[in-house]
Write a structure and sequence with these properties.
Elements (H helix, E strand, L loop, with lengths): L2 E5 L2 E5 L4 H14 L2 E4 L10 H15 L5 E7 L6 H7 L5 E4 L17 H14 L3 E3 L10 H15 L5 E3 L5 H7 L5 E5 L1 H5 L2 H5 L16 H12 L5 E3 L8 H4 L14 H11 L6 H13 L7 E5 L3 E2 L15 E2 L2 E6 L1
Helix pairs in contact: 1-2
The protein binds (4S)-2,6-dioxohexahydropyrimidine-4-carboxylic acid and zinc ion.
(4S)-2,6-dioxohexahydropyrimidine-4-carboxylic acid (DOR) binds next to loops.
């Protein structure tokens, strides 16, 4: 095959930031995707409707004429008022929960995990049909954080059987196994976690542009992620977790966590899925599953990729992308609306 068309590709976990960074990265996602789930971890995080509206307006302004729907999220707080949530439920696609301090701009997240304390918000979300997205990591040893969080996912899934819970950016075989144990558990998988293991980050010279949270894991974990992505398991969907930081924040002591993949995501996914004979399932992984899970209907956009080299730029503005300066076997050749 030398050409593939992806209809309404969706990026269900996306950091667009704000200000100058937003202006520089939003058009890149808007070019190749039909929509994206926009993370709320700004400073300060998005916690009320005025902030959400004005952030959505800034995103739309940054995107210009491009056809791209920003699916907005609120930053989880345990004491959201039920009436407030009812009033915003049509304007948000999900609420994102971060454990306090676990990653970039998550200081205002949840401390401890007392389900009773979280119940007012979770109960209302469940009743109103608002999905819950979670950055599922404990504060334990870095390689074990995701595994240690699984019992929390399970307690939440049991306590709120009608609440859709999305395990964000899963990185381990344990998380893949948990998916099938509870009807209401779903997951996003990033491009970089399908491609790399910890060896690529720290096995040779340290690669700051591959450093992210959760950290990439073992080959057998990557294998488990690949298996469900390549078969487009109906409970998994693509979410890039594309997380731009300026070059000087990455190439520094105290390197910021995040891999910037938005502009290379579709060419790299096609390259990978082709290599493993899974191209027939990419449409479901990158769009259909998310549409079904979230019940969304994104704007029509057909992205054609051709088997022609994409030379990845060294930088997009201030940000170094994954595979900077390297070549991918596929590139975007046209977009039709
Ligand atoms: O590597 C990451 N970067 N992981 C996250 O969860 C957050 C993200 C960011 O916002 O930079
Ligand atoms: Zn993220």
């Amino acid at each position: 095959m030398t050409e593939i068309v992806l209809n309404e590709p969706l990026d269900m976990h996306l950091h667009l930031r704000d200000g100058k960074m937003l202006q520089s990265v939003a058009p890149l996602s808007a070019y190749s995707f039909s929509g994206g789930l926009i993370m709320p971890n700004l400073i300060p995080p998005i916690t009320d409707i005025d902030m959400l509206h004005s952030y959505r307006d800034r995103i739309k302004q940054a995107i210009g004429d491009e056809k791209f729907l920003p699916y907005m999220t609120l930053f989880f707080k345990s004491n959201y008022d039920r009436d407030f949530l009812a009033s915003v439920s049509d304007e948000i696609t999900a609420i994102k929960l971060y454990p306090a301090g676990i990653t970039t701009n998550s200081e205002g997240g949840v401390q401890g995990f007392d389900i009773d304390e979280l119940s007012p918000t979770l109960g209302a979300m469940s009743d109103l049909g608002i999905p819950l997205c979670i950055h599922g990591e404990s504060s334990g040893f870095v390689m074990d954080r995701e595994k240690e969080f699984i019992p929390i996912y399970e307690s939440l899934a049991r306590a709120f059987p009608n609440l859709k819970i999305v395990m964000e950016h899963i990185t381990t075989a344990n998380s893949v196994e948990a998916l099938d144990r509870y009807e209401n558990l779903y997951a996003t998988i990033t491009l970089h976690h399908l491609l790399i293991t910890l060896d690529d980050v720290a096995g040779g010279m340290l690669q700051p542009h591959l450093f992210c949270k959760p950290i990439a894991k073992r080959p057998e974990d990557r294998e488990a992620l690949r298996r469900v992505a390549f078969e487009a398991h109906p409970k998994v969907m693509f979410g890039s977790d594309s997380a731009p930081h300026p070059q000087n924040a990455k190439e520094a002591p105290g390197c910021a966590a995040g891999v910037f993949t938005a502009p290379i995501a579709l060419p790299a996914l096609v390259t990978l899925f082709e290599e493993y004979g899974a191209l027939d399932n990419l449409q479901r992984f990158v769009s259909d599953n998310a549409k079904a899970i979230y019940g969304i209907n994104p704007p029509t956009k057909a992205v054609t990729l051709t088997k022609e080299l994409m030379k990845v730029p060294q930088k997009y503005g201030e940000v170094v992308p994954m595979y900077a300066g390297e070549e991918l076997s596929w590139s975007i050749s046209s977009i039709n609306y």
